[in-house]
Task: structure prediction
Amino acid sequence: MSVVRAYARVLFVGPDLAHGSLAELFQRQLLALRGASALADSVDTTAGFDGLWQRVTACIDAGDLPLLLLDLDPQTSSPYLDWLRSELQRLAAPFGVADQLLVASVKSGEQIDIAAAVALIERPELHLGCVNVPELPSAHAWSCIPTHSYRVLLCNGPRCTRRGALPLWKSLREQLKAAGKLECAGGVHITRTQCQFPCDQGPTMSVYPPGAWYQVRNSDELTRLVEQQFIAGQLVPELLMRPLD
Ligand code: FES
Result:
């Protein structure tokens, strides 16, 4: 049976924990579940990981060990956890405390399931140590440039969201998947972005190639774009914000 460890500190780590509506919900739930001190132990990684490395180093210096990092990144994955653990292992090695750093991960979709994350603290069988972390492979799928035919940037900025961009995103994924074109060889790689700037003409979708700016206002227009641009490989002139150069 796994023994519950008494952690000196638990850090809550992920993007969008400090600003925005999701952060507000996260902080409200964390306050209710763990009290005010836990809020100070959340580390927002939206802008990068330097802040996390500083926090971990400070914990090591202060003897706040063992330390558990709860990974709240909605995009978490096995390669990401391998990387995170190997970075922590490297950070702890000079102090000989890599065995005092552990990671647990909750994959929770768009909105963080903070109750599930907190429950993980009592599940030592789901905690991953930072010693003997598997070597990151020197060649793996995410080291190669993918063979997609198109890269699509769909704006999910505030004004495009108000104009219906979120359901369009869901529908775009579904239609591409049904057509066998979603993120595969010869298919379409799609990414949601913040504001792309021509808000008043949105919802905005940029398509590369050919470097087209499309205005996609409803599901009918989206279907036309999928069929004509991504399946047939032809421009949809009536949806262009401006003619191609
Ligand atoms: S919010 Fe989408 S282009 Fe500005």
